[in-house]
């Protein structure tokens, strides 16, 4: 399914708080923090000339977040960044003076951190990031997972010392349970989705994601003309779209938000003209995008700066995993998890449809940017889908 953005807010400026969080200054703040990590490295930006020629576009560039901060996912930029930031803010409040990040490992700050518990609901990658951040500063982490999260992904979170809590139902049910229990226990929820009255922290999580766009712009010879990014609750798509719009202004690229057909909460919201819950059915193979309610902050951003919304099928995502693993035309091998190539799957679907190409002005001169949002974060599942090996 494909839909041009017809919302009345389309083309309107971002709200001031979103522009402040997701612009160049916000990305610089994130990069200043993550550069201090022991495993910091700029992730690769790969050119895919072989695939670009097949699809009839000028260039395809993939930002490969499968190498990010030892976690294998762009989520490493969000949750852990926010945990560190909130610890420094709380230390400043208790100690009555500004606290620089250089003091993060000081005894005074570590004493503050040890008194804090950070919680979240996760499909896997966000929980790893929050747990990693808590371990980094000496705080505690309580991570809520729903029934669809694999044991391998749970173990990957638990190795950071997090307390794992099972919640019945879908991802959205685990979000509600995390909020309820955290309110009872006085824990700080670091969620990548937002709801009425809870917007600042999800906004900061999204700010973390802008670092990958700032890196990519420095790696490019020319900015892209088109961008396809997967949705989930919308944080990554909104962060990427907003940063491009704020930094490039009138030269910003055409932006397409890509949902899994089985969990198309942002597409459904675009159809309805406002945020709605998508119908819950069979889970999508794109496990990190198996979300049925959009983040309110992400919706208000995408309603302004997304040019189109679309869906891709599970088989499209699996086909991209295999295409990147066995590339053509001299393209590099890229390891993409089930959700990692959904944006690229959107491009492939559009490129094969003359009507959609025309609507997006996609042609042989177009320079397309996509994000591989995760590597093989569930190795057994990756082996099954790409190499035909039983999980």
From TrEMBL:
A Pfam family reported for this protein in Swiss-Prot or TrEMBL: PALP
Cofactor names: pyridoxal 5'-phosphate
Sequence ranges assigned to domain Tryptophan synthase beta chain-like PALP in this UniProt record: 39-372
Domain of life from the UniProt record: Bacteria
Listed EC numbers: 4.3.1.15
Keywords, sorted A to Z: Lyase, Pyridoxal phosphate
Class in the EC hierarchy, top level: lyase
GO molecular function: diaminopropionate ammonia-lyase activity
NCBIfam families: diampropi_NH3ly, PRK08206.1
Protein name: Diaminopropionate ammonia-lyase
Source species of the chain: Bosea massiliensis
